[in-house]
Specification:
The complex is a heterotrimer of chains A (404), B (221) and C (226).
Chain A lengths: L1 H11 L1 H4 L4 H8 L4 E3 L2 E2 L3 H17 L6 H7 L5 H13 L3 E4 L7 E4 L1 H16 L2 H16 L5 H26 L3 H11 L3 H17 L4 H27 L12 H10 L2 H6 L15 H10 L28 H15 L4 E3 H4 L4 H16 L5 E5 L4 E2 L7 E2 L2 E5 L3
Antiparallel strand pairs in A: 1-2, 3-4, 5-9, 6-9, 7-8
Helix pairs in contact in A: 1-8, 1-9, 8-11, 9-10, 9-12, 10-12, 11-12, 16-18
Chain B lengths: L5 H4 L4 H16 L4 E2 L9 H12 L3 E5 L4 E6 L1 H8 L8 H20 L16 H8 L3 H13 L3 E4 L8 E4 L8 H15 L4 H23 L1
Antiparallel strand pairs in B: 1-3, 2-3, 4-5
Helix pairs in contact in B: 2-3, 5-7
Chain C lengths: L1 H5 L10 H12 L3 E3 L9 E4 L3 E5 L10 H4 L10 H15 L13 E2 H11 L4 H16 L3 E4 L4 E4 L12 H9 L50
Antiparallel strand pairs in C: 1-3, 2-3, 4-6, 5-6
The chains are: A mainly alpha (404), B mainly alpha (221), C alpha+beta (226).
């Protein structure tokens, strides 16, 4: 993959290379990753500082930034972290000091560092897959370019062959290693059908234009096949060791989200087509029926049904399902009132103007009556008269959570 | 005395027999997998085998659901046979809702590294709103589907807490999937969501070769 | 018949049809067939003379209530208390001859059941609506048979699983519940079902001759007040 990165950056940075030493470019490219001028960062947050700074420079335009402005955009980082970063970035040439006027110190950022950082971010995201896509697309363009020489084409083919071979070696090593490591790494390394397709198309294009590159192309073809084979093996090993849900990690969250967004209900349902489940079969022991009646809210003493208004008895109305939205509203009301507590005195809850209190009391009564909501109102028999209070009389009562 | 179970229970003395019956009823009807420590018949091979055979009478089998935990579920061959009967497969809208819950509560948290245990049980609720948007079902139909799924223990409702709005998670019935059924569920989800992924390719290849083997075996028989 | 359909034509599946039938019943809840159709041998069934319901079979008279003794929770059933109270109200109306078994009982108007339920609990309109939902839920799980078209309800096949010995306290309780209002036409109770229901092992499909002969001879007494 190192080959891939060199090619990718070199191809995109030709103009920057002119007039600068190769080492200088390398330093700037990886400045964002440097801990000091001799080693790579060991804390990803340090890269964030660099990224924040570079973004601020992009916004600042040709005037660049003053030191105070740089400090301001990095204010969420500790001073010493900022100072350290600035020193390293300056040391590596990612940020340069300029003097637009005498006694005025400004800073400018290097374009190369930004490109390098973009590349690094992509590599971190998928371990080089998208870089390989770009590289293949780029090479395809080069092959069609009339200025391309056979030597350049050979170098390109050899570079790609080397990348694919190293790639498949990594995959094979993983496939023969522990399943945990494979599970973690393989998705970043294995080839999608598209990469293989592009690689083969490129190989065909090189061979058609320069038949004398036949040997280099044979090498490239073998490398592509080896790579395809290695990624199939990695996938097969993973699918064999499926476990229960572990392989779900092998599709990124975004793929799952896209599926839920784009799939028709029928496609979603098809996932469970081959599965059968137990029907709901709750058991009601006679003694449990008795207990439920005895523990339930009862009108005591038992008396015949009270007369009720002549509501039409048209069998069952359709309106019997629970109304989720209304239930949720009541639940919210209950939680607002309880605010994390297990019970509150009704009097405390109603200490508002009468209209509000009445509405709230009605809500609490509905919550109490709602069979799905685990709350209840309990009243004592006493009556408290509160001249001047709102309301002016009150039975001491509690609004509380129930266990069930 | 029941002549269906009698041949399997006859060999046990009264105490053992009661233990076997209790273990049988527990794995069949408890919501969660039951621990060996509480059900003696699940600890030892002979009575456990009796439980297994009793389950077999209705096409079921013991499912190990963790260390020293047991439940019951459909034998794979029986489940496959039942799944051919359209009456036995839940209706489209219930399956669509259930698939969404599996993806939101299990697949996505898993892919994001938020789930530790390798089960279909998850603490991450799928919000009602998400179900409403994605199934495009009229609210009445969605509520009916949710009600039936809840009643069957296929989903469970999580009440709104301090940090999230609540919603639905896979229910206790998912403990009842055999290892093979669990793996198949995972595969079906991957095939549906990432049909172009190398993993989907590997799944399809393995299924093809298994079918070929089965055909050959049947041809030889 | 469904069981036969499950066996492939080429005979490549060798699952015992009785095993499949029991498994299928677990998937469907309490499936039923006409009494004229064959019932898998060895199946536990409940019949009302017209249809036969397949029931689960449990060893040594055990029921899922056994789980309680082992501190083990059954499948969660939300609002179980309310469902059971509504079931009690329905039985108050449908189990009209308490000396007999509750199955198959006799149909009662849904309105009467709701009336009894309202009398048992806080009789708000809201509670009545929820009770209607419970009736449907009980019907979906085989504890009641709900005929939405005629607005009637009767006991479901699952009550046939209740052992007679476990019914004493329930009989006593139902007696204390409010009496269903006595209604004359148009929603008077339809004729009762056969007097000799079967709840046995290899189901004995009943002839239909005896069905319609049960006299409506012990309707509940008139309500005590006016």
């Amino acid at each position: 993959m190192s080959t891939a990165s060199e090619n990718a950056s070199a191809a995109g940075l030709d103009d920057v290379l002119v007039g600068e030493a190769v080492l200088g470019v390398y330093r700037q490219m990886f400045a964002a990753l440097a801990r000091d001028s001799g080693a790579v960062v060991d804390d990803p947050a340090l890269v964030d500082v660099a990224e924040t700074l570079l973004a601020a420079f992009a916004d600042a335009g040709e005037d660049g930034l003053s030191r105070e402005q740089m400090r301001h955009v990095c204010r969420r980082y500790p001073a010493e972290v900022f100072e350290n970063r600035l020193r390293v970035l300056k040391g590596l040439g990612a940020i340069r000091e300029v003097f637009p006027k005498p006694n005025q110190l400004r800073y400018r950022a290097s374009f190369t560092s930004v490109v390098g950082l973009m590349f690094v971010r992509r590599m971190m995201l998928d371990g080089g897959q998208s870089e390989m896509h770009r590289l293949l697309a780029l090479e395809q363009l080069n092959v069609a370019d009339p200025r391309m020489t056979p030597e350049q084409a050979r170098a390109g083919a050899e570079g790609l062959a080397r990348a694919f071979r190293l790639w498949s070696v990594e995959l094979l090593t993983l496939t023969n290693g522990t399943i945990e490591e494979l599970r973690e790494q393989a998705p970043k390394l294995w080839g999608t059908e598209e990469i293989l397709l592009r690689a083969e198309r490129l190989h065909g294009a090189i061979l058609r234009r320069w038949p004398l590159l036949d040997r280099a192309c044979t090498e490239l073809r073998a490398a592509i096949y080896a790579y395809g084979d290695a990624s199939r093996r990695a996938a097969a090993r993973l699918s064999d060791s499926a476990g229960t849900t572990r392989n779900l990690t092998l599709l990124p969250p975004e793929t799952w989200r896209t599926f839920t967004r784009t799939a028709a209900p029928e496609d979603l349902a098809a996932v469970l087509e081959g599965f059968v489940f137990d029907a709901a079969a709750p058991w009601h022991e006679p003694s449990a029926v008795v207990a439920a009646v005895e523990d339930g809210p009862r009108v005591t003493p038992p008396r015949p049904a009270p007369p009720r208004p002549s509501v039409p008895d048209a069998g069952l109305s359709a309106d019997t399902g629970s109304d989720l939205a209304a239930t949720e509203r009541l639940r919210e009301t209950a939680e607002q009132v309880l605010r994390g507590r297990d019970r509150v005195a009704v009097a405390d809850v109603l200490a508002e103007d009468w209209a509000t209190a009445r509405r709230r009391l009605a809500d609490l009564a509905s919550v109490h009556l709602h069979p799905e909501l685990p709350y209840r109102l309990r009243w004592s028999d006493a009556l408290e008269v509160r001249p001047g209070g709102v309301p002016t009389w009150l039975s001491p009562g509690w609004f509380e959570r129930t266990g069930a | 005395m029941d002549e269906v179970f009698e041949p399997l229970l006859r060999e046990f003395d009264e105490r053992r027999r009661a233990e076997v019956v209790a273990a049988y009823m527990a794995v069949e009807h408890a919501a969660e997998p039951v621990p060996e420590v509480r059900f003696a018949a699940l600890r030892e091979p002979a009575p456990r085998r009796a439980v297994e055979e009793m389950l077999g009478l209705s096409g079921r089998t013991l499912v190990k659901a963790g260390r020293d935990l047991w439940t019951s579920g459909f034998r794979d061959d029986v489940a496959a046979e039942l799944a051919r009967d359209p009456e036995c497969v839940p209706p489209v809208r219930e399956r669509a809702v259930l698939a969404l819950v599996l993806i939101h509560s299990v697949a996505i948290p898993r892919a994001a590294g938020l789930l530790e245990d390798d089960t279909w049980v998850s603490p991450h609720p799928t919000p009602l709103d998400e179900l409403r948007r994605r199934t495009r079902l009229p609210i009445g139909d969605l509520e009916a589907a949710l009600r039936r799924l809840r009643m069957a223990g296929l989903i469970a409702q999580v009440k709104a807490g301090a940090d999230d709005a609540g919603g639905f998670v896979p229910g206790p019935q998912f403990h009842r999937l055999t290892p093979d059924a669990r793996r198949r569920l995972q595969e079906e989800l991957i095939l549906a969501a990432g049909p172009e992924s190398p993993l989907a390719g590997a799944i399809r290849a393995r299924r093809r070769s298994r079918e070929r083997e089965q055909r050959e075996q049947r041809g030889n028989a | 018949m469904a069981v036969a359909r499950l066996v492939r034509e080429d005979g490549s599946v060798s699952i015992d049809p009785r095993v499949l039938a029991r498994a299928r019943a677990r998937v469907l809840g309490t499936p039923s067939v006409s009494v004229r159709e064959p019932v898998p041998a060895g199946a536990a069934t409940a019949s009302d003379g017209e249809r036969v319901w397949l029931l689960p079979r449990w060893p040594d008279g055990a029921t899922p209530a056994l789980l309680e003794e082992y501190d083990t929770a059954p499948m969660p059933f939300e609002r179980g208390g309310q469902a059971r109270r509504v079931l009690a109200a329905a039985l108050r109306c449908c189990w009209t001859r308490p000396d007999d078994a509750p199955w198959p009982g006799s149909p009662a108007a849904v309105a009467d059941v709701l009336e009894v339920y309202a009398g048992m609990t806080r009789g708000t309109e809201l509670a009545r609506r929820w009770a209607t939902g419970e009736l449907r839920r009980l019907s979906e799980t085989g504890w009641l048979l709900l005929d939405e078209a005629s607005g009637t309800v009767r006991p479901g096949p699952r009550v046939a699983l209740w052992a007679d010995g476990s019914l004493t306290s329930l009989r006593a309780l139902l007696h204390t519940l409010p009496q269903p209002p006595h209604r004359s036409s148009p929603s008077s109770p339809p004729p009762e079902n056969p007097e000799h229901p079967s709840m046995n092992d290899p189901a004995v499909p009943r002839g239909r001759a005896a069905e319609k002969s049960a006299p409506v001879d012990d309707l509940p007494p008139e309500p005590g007040d006016g």
